[in-house]
Amino acid sequence: MRGCDTGPRCAAAGRPRGRDCGDATTNARLSPGAVVAPATGMAIAPSARLRTDRCGPRPRGSTNECIHPKETNHMNALNAISLSVGLWVGIWCFATLGYLEPKVMTWITFLTWASFYAAGGGKAGLVKAIASAFAGTLISAAIVWLNGQLGGGVQGVGLLIFSLLLAVLGWALCQLSKVDLFSFIPGAFIGAASFFGAGAPLDGKLGWVLVSIVCGAVMGLISERVGQAMTAKAPA
After folding, report:
1. Which domain holds residue 19?
2. What is the largest CA-CA distance in the chain?
3. CA distance 23 to 15
4. β-strands 35-36, 43-44: how paired?
Protein backbone atom coordinates (compact mmCIF):
# COMPACT_ATOMS: atom_id res chain seq x y z
CA MET A 1 0.00 0.00 0.00
CA ARG A 2 1.53 3.31 -0.99
CA GLY A 3 0.84 6.98 -0.69
CA CYS A 4 -2.33 7.54 1.33
CA ASP A 5 -4.26 4.43 0.34
CA THR A 6 -5.34 3.99 3.95
CA GLY A 7 -8.71 5.38 4.87
CA PRO A 8 -7.77 8.18 7.29
CA ARG A 9 -5.05 9.52 5.08
CA CYS A 10 -7.21 9.47 1.96
CA ALA A 11 -9.97 11.19 3.86
CA ALA A 12 -7.53 13.86 5.00
CA ALA A 13 -6.45 14.35 1.41
CA GLY A 14 -10.03 14.59 0.19
CA ARG A 15 -9.95 11.26 -1.71
CA PRO A 16 -12.39 8.30 -1.40
CA ARG A 17 -11.31 5.36 0.72
CA GLY A 18 -9.55 2.53 -0.98
CA ARG A 19 -8.34 4.62 -3.94
CA ASP A 20 -4.76 5.44 -4.74
CA CYS A 21 -3.96 9.02 -3.86
CA GLY A 22 -0.22 8.68 -3.98
CA ASP A 23 0.53 11.63 -6.31
CA ALA A 24 3.13 14.24 -5.44
CA THR A 25 0.59 16.88 -4.45
CA THR A 26 -1.37 14.87 -1.87
CA ASN A 27 1.68 13.05 -0.55
CA ALA A 28 3.00 16.48 0.31
CA ARG A 29 0.74 16.41 3.34
CA LEU A 30 2.97 13.68 4.68
CA SER A 31 6.29 14.96 3.34
CA PRO A 32 8.75 17.12 5.26
CA GLY A 33 9.41 20.45 3.59
CA ALA A 34 5.99 20.64 1.93
CA VAL A 35 4.42 24.05 1.45
CA VAL A 36 0.80 25.14 1.28
CA ALA A 37 -0.24 27.27 -1.67
CA PRO A 38 -2.20 30.22 -0.26
CA ALA A 39 -4.19 30.61 -3.47
CA THR A 40 -5.60 27.05 -3.37
CA GLY A 41 -5.01 25.71 0.13
CA MET A 42 -3.31 22.62 -1.32
CA ALA A 43 -0.15 21.09 0.08
CA ILE A 44 2.62 20.90 -2.48
CA ALA A 45 5.60 18.56 -2.27
CA PRO A 46 9.04 20.05 -2.77
CA SER A 47 9.45 17.83 -5.83
CA ALA A 48 6.28 19.10 -7.51
CA ARG A 49 6.71 21.59 -10.32
CA LEU A 50 5.48 24.96 -9.14
CA ARG A 51 4.70 28.30 -10.65
CA THR A 52 4.84 31.40 -8.50
CA ASP A 53 2.66 34.46 -8.92
CA ARG A 54 1.44 37.23 -6.63
CA CYS A 55 -0.62 34.69 -4.64
CA GLY A 56 2.41 32.48 -3.94
CA PRO A 57 3.52 29.03 -5.16
CA ARG A 58 0.98 26.65 -6.68
CA PRO A 59 1.06 23.68 -9.10
CA ARG A 60 1.69 24.40 -12.75
CA GLY A 61 -1.49 24.03 -14.76
CA SER A 62 -3.71 25.16 -11.91
CA THR A 63 -6.77 26.92 -13.27
CA ASN A 64 -7.77 28.55 -10.00
CA GLU A 65 -7.92 32.30 -10.48
CA CYS A 66 -5.50 34.30 -8.38
CA ILE A 67 -7.07 37.50 -7.05
CA HIS A 68 -4.81 39.70 -5.00
CA PRO A 69 -6.52 41.00 -1.81
CA LYS A 70 -5.79 44.62 -2.76
CA GLU A 71 -6.75 44.29 -6.41
CA THR A 72 -10.35 45.38 -5.96
CA ASN A 73 -9.36 48.45 -3.96
CA HIS A 74 -6.71 49.30 -6.55
CA MET A 75 -9.26 49.18 -9.34
CA ASN A 76 -11.64 51.31 -7.32
CA ALA A 77 -8.91 53.92 -6.86
CA LEU A 78 -8.01 53.87 -10.55
CA ASN A 79 -11.63 54.22 -11.61
CA ALA A 80 -12.20 57.02 -9.12
CA ILE A 81 -9.18 59.07 -10.20
CA SER A 82 -10.06 58.48 -13.85
CA LEU A 83 -13.58 59.77 -13.34
CA SER A 84 -12.38 62.73 -11.30
CA VAL A 85 -9.69 63.79 -13.78
CA GLY A 86 -12.07 63.38 -16.71
CA LEU A 87 -14.74 65.46 -14.98
CA TRP A 88 -12.40 68.31 -14.05
CA VAL A 89 -10.66 68.32 -17.42
CA GLY A 90 -14.02 68.95 -19.07
CA ILE A 91 -14.97 71.67 -16.60
CA TRP A 92 -11.56 73.33 -16.83
CA CYS A 93 -11.50 73.35 -20.63
CA PHE A 94 -14.96 74.91 -20.71
CA ALA A 95 -13.85 77.63 -18.27
CA THR A 96 -10.48 78.44 -19.83
CA LEU A 97 -11.31 78.15 -23.52
CA GLY A 98 -14.63 79.89 -23.08
CA TYR A 99 -13.78 82.63 -20.61
CA LEU A 100 -10.15 82.78 -19.44
CA GLU A 101 -8.11 82.53 -22.65
CA PRO A 102 -5.86 84.08 -23.80
CA LYS A 103 -4.66 85.23 -20.38
CA VAL A 104 -4.79 81.86 -18.65
CA MET A 105 -3.08 79.50 -21.09
CA THR A 106 -4.85 76.14 -21.10
CA TRP A 107 -1.90 74.17 -22.43
CA ILE A 108 0.35 75.40 -19.62
CA THR A 109 -2.22 74.41 -17.01
CA PHE A 110 -2.24 70.86 -18.37
CA LEU A 111 1.55 70.70 -18.20
CA THR A 112 1.60 71.59 -14.52
CA TRP A 113 -1.49 69.45 -13.86
CA ALA A 114 0.56 66.46 -15.02
CA SER A 115 3.59 67.78 -13.14
CA PHE A 116 1.60 67.73 -9.91
CA TYR A 117 0.96 63.99 -10.22
CA ALA A 118 4.50 63.29 -11.40
CA ALA A 119 5.86 65.09 -8.33
CA GLY A 120 3.96 62.67 -6.09
CA GLY A 121 0.68 64.50 -5.58
CA GLY A 122 -0.65 65.82 -2.30
CA LYS A 123 0.45 69.08 -0.73
CA ALA A 124 4.12 68.22 -1.22
CA GLY A 125 3.57 67.56 -4.91
CA LEU A 126 1.64 70.81 -5.25
CA VAL A 127 4.45 72.85 -3.68
CA LYS A 128 7.22 71.14 -5.66
CA ALA A 129 5.38 71.36 -8.97
CA ILE A 130 4.73 75.09 -8.56
CA ALA A 131 8.13 75.99 -7.08
CA SER A 132 10.10 74.07 -9.71
CA ALA A 133 8.04 75.47 -12.59
CA PHE A 134 8.37 79.01 -11.21
CA ALA A 135 12.13 78.60 -10.98
CA GLY A 136 12.36 77.27 -14.53
CA THR A 137 10.21 80.11 -15.84
CA LEU A 138 12.04 82.90 -14.05
CA ILE A 139 15.53 81.61 -14.82
CA SER A 140 14.53 81.32 -18.47
CA ALA A 141 13.28 84.90 -18.40
CA ALA A 142 16.61 86.01 -16.92
CA ILE A 143 18.48 84.15 -19.66
CA VAL A 144 16.41 85.83 -22.38
CA TRP A 145 16.94 89.25 -20.81
CA LEU A 146 20.70 88.63 -20.54
CA ASN A 147 20.77 87.43 -24.13
CA GLY A 148 19.33 90.76 -25.22
CA GLN A 149 21.92 92.66 -23.22
CA LEU A 150 24.77 90.68 -24.79
CA GLY A 151 23.48 91.06 -28.32
CA GLY A 152 22.46 87.46 -28.72
CA GLY A 153 20.21 86.38 -31.55
CA VAL A 154 19.51 83.56 -33.96
CA GLN A 155 22.32 84.16 -36.45
CA GLY A 156 26.10 84.32 -36.41
CA VAL A 157 27.77 85.33 -33.16
CA GLY A 158 24.39 86.11 -31.64
CA LEU A 159 23.33 82.49 -32.10
CA LEU A 160 26.52 81.32 -30.40
CA ILE A 161 25.83 83.59 -27.43
CA PHE A 162 22.24 82.42 -27.17
CA SER A 163 23.28 78.75 -27.38
CA LEU A 164 25.82 79.20 -24.60
CA LEU A 165 23.21 80.87 -22.42
CA LEU A 166 20.79 78.01 -23.03
CA ALA A 167 23.52 75.59 -21.96
CA VAL A 168 23.81 77.56 -18.73
CA LEU A 169 20.03 77.36 -18.36
CA GLY A 170 20.03 73.56 -18.65
CA TRP A 171 22.85 73.30 -16.11
CA ALA A 172 21.08 75.62 -13.68
CA LEU A 173 17.76 73.77 -13.88
CA CYS A 174 19.49 70.53 -12.90
CA GLN A 175 21.53 72.17 -10.13
CA LEU A 176 18.29 73.39 -8.57
CA SER A 177 17.60 69.83 -7.42
CA LYS A 178 20.14 70.33 -4.62
CA VAL A 179 17.46 72.39 -2.89
CA ASP A 180 14.56 70.22 -1.73
CA LEU A 181 11.93 72.79 -2.69
CA PHE A 182 13.14 72.70 -6.30
CA SER A 183 14.15 69.04 -6.38
CA PHE A 184 11.59 68.05 -9.03
CA ILE A 185 13.76 68.63 -12.11
CA PRO A 186 11.05 67.85 -14.71
CA GLY A 187 8.95 70.62 -13.18
CA ALA A 188 11.75 73.13 -13.77
CA PHE A 189 11.99 72.13 -17.41
CA ILE A 190 8.20 72.34 -17.71
CA GLY A 191 8.43 75.92 -16.42
CA ALA A 192 11.13 76.74 -18.98
CA ALA A 193 9.11 75.15 -21.77
CA SER A 194 6.03 77.10 -20.70
CA PHE A 195 7.97 80.36 -20.84
CA PHE A 196 9.44 79.77 -24.29
CA GLY A 197 6.20 78.26 -25.58
CA ALA A 198 4.36 81.42 -24.56
CA GLY A 199 6.76 83.45 -26.71
CA ALA A 200 9.45 84.19 -24.10
CA PRO A 201 7.56 87.23 -22.79
CA LEU A 202 9.28 89.79 -20.57
CA ASP A 203 6.15 91.92 -20.14
CA GLY A 204 2.86 91.39 -18.34
CA LYS A 205 2.31 88.10 -20.13
CA LEU A 206 5.06 86.58 -18.00
CA GLY A 207 2.80 87.03 -14.99
CA TRP A 208 0.03 85.09 -16.73
CA VAL A 209 2.45 82.26 -17.42
CA LEU A 210 2.99 82.03 -13.67
CA VAL A 211 -0.76 82.22 -13.01
CA SER A 212 -1.34 79.40 -15.49
CA ILE A 213 1.27 77.28 -13.72
CA VAL A 214 -0.48 77.72 -10.38
CA CYS A 215 -3.91 76.99 -11.88
CA GLY A 216 -2.74 73.70 -13.38
CA ALA A 217 -1.15 72.45 -10.17
CA VAL A 218 -4.22 73.43 -8.14
CA MET A 219 -6.48 71.58 -10.58
CA GLY A 220 -4.28 68.55 -10.08
CA LEU A 221 -4.79 68.72 -6.33
CA ILE A 222 -8.56 69.17 -6.72
CA SER A 223 -8.87 66.19 -9.06
CA GLU A 224 -6.78 64.06 -6.68
CA ARG A 225 -8.84 64.96 -3.61
CA VAL A 226 -12.14 64.32 -5.38
CA GLY A 227 -10.85 60.95 -6.58
CA GLN A 228 -9.78 60.03 -3.05
CA ALA A 229 -13.21 60.99 -1.72
CA MET A 230 -14.88 58.78 -4.30
CA THR A 231 -12.64 55.87 -3.35
CA ALA A 232 -13.39 56.30 0.34
CA LYS A 233 -17.12 56.02 -0.36
CA ALA A 234 -16.75 52.97 -2.60
CA PRO A 235 -17.97 49.66 -1.07
CA ALA A 236 -15.22 47.39 0.19
Report:
1. 7-59
2. 98
3. 11
4. antiparallel
